[in-house]
Amino acid sequence: MKGLHVPTLILQGDEDATSAEAAREWLTVSTEAWLVILAQSGHYPWLERPDVFRLIADHFLVDRR
User: 11-60 pLDDT, tens per residue?
Assistant: First the structure.
Protein backbone atom coordinates (compact mmCIF):
# COMPACT_ATOMS: atom_id res chain seq x y z
CA MET A 1 0.00 0.00 0.00
CA LYS A 2 2.95 2.36 0.40
CA GLY A 3 3.09 2.78 -3.36
CA LEU A 4 -0.52 3.92 -3.52
CA HIS A 5 -0.70 7.70 -3.82
CA VAL A 6 -4.38 8.52 -4.16
CA PRO A 7 -6.79 10.45 -1.93
CA THR A 8 -8.22 8.07 0.65
CA LEU A 9 -11.00 8.68 3.15
CA ILE A 10 -10.79 6.53 6.26
CA LEU A 11 -13.91 6.79 8.33
CA GLN A 12 -13.98 5.02 11.69
CA GLY A 13 -16.90 4.93 14.08
CA ASP A 14 -15.93 5.58 17.69
CA GLU A 15 -18.14 2.64 18.73
CA ASP A 16 -16.75 0.25 16.11
CA ALA A 17 -15.52 -3.08 17.49
CA THR A 18 -12.46 -2.70 15.24
CA SER A 19 -9.70 -0.72 16.91
CA ALA A 20 -9.15 2.85 15.75
CA GLU A 21 -5.43 2.04 15.79
CA ALA A 22 -5.89 0.01 12.61
CA ALA A 23 -7.44 3.06 10.96
CA ARG A 24 -4.61 5.27 12.21
CA GLU A 25 -2.05 2.95 10.65
CA TRP A 26 -3.36 3.95 7.21
CA LEU A 27 -2.05 7.44 7.87
CA THR A 28 1.47 6.05 8.07
CA VAL A 29 1.30 4.54 4.57
CA SER A 30 -0.77 7.06 2.67
CA THR A 31 0.30 10.68 2.34
CA GLU A 32 -3.11 11.60 0.95
CA ALA A 33 -5.29 9.95 3.59
CA TRP A 34 -7.90 11.63 5.73
CA LEU A 35 -8.93 9.94 8.96
CA VAL A 36 -12.23 10.89 10.55
CA ILE A 37 -13.41 9.29 13.80
CA LEU A 38 -17.19 9.58 13.77
CA ALA A 39 -18.90 9.92 17.15
CA GLN A 40 -21.90 7.76 18.01
CA SER A 41 -21.23 5.36 15.16
CA GLY A 42 -20.15 1.78 14.84
CA HIS A 43 -18.97 -0.18 11.81
CA TYR A 44 -21.62 1.14 9.40
CA PRO A 45 -21.56 4.94 9.65
CA TRP A 46 -23.39 5.39 6.34
CA LEU A 47 -26.37 3.61 7.95
CA GLU A 48 -25.97 4.77 11.54
CA ARG A 49 -25.19 8.45 10.88
CA PRO A 50 -26.10 9.04 7.22
CA ASP A 51 -26.41 12.81 7.65
CA VAL A 52 -22.89 13.23 9.03
CA PHE A 53 -21.45 10.57 6.73
CA ARG A 54 -22.77 12.48 3.72
CA LEU A 55 -21.27 15.76 4.92
CA ILE A 56 -17.86 14.18 5.47
CA ALA A 57 -17.90 12.36 2.14
CA ASP A 58 -19.04 15.46 0.25
CA HIS A 59 -16.33 17.59 1.86
CA PHE A 60 -13.69 15.00 1.03
CA LEU A 61 -14.81 14.74 -2.61
CA VAL A 62 -15.13 18.51 -3.11
CA ASP A 63 -11.66 19.07 -1.66
CA ARG A 64 -10.26 16.74 -4.31
CA ARG A 65 -11.42 18.85 -7.28
Answer: 999 999 988 898 898 888 888 889 999 999 999 999 999 999 999 999 99
Instruction: Specify the pTM.
Output: 0.79
Please say whether the beta carbons of 43 and 13 come within 8 A: yes
Per-domain boundaries in the chain:
8-63
DSSP track, the chain? -TT--S-EEEEEETT-SS-HHHHHHHHHH-TTEEEEEETT--S-HHHHSHHHHHHHHHHHHHHT-
Closest C-alpha to 61, from 17, 9, 21, 26? 9
Are the beta carbons of 42 and 13 closer than 8 angstroms? yes
Longest CA–CA separation in the chain, Å: 33
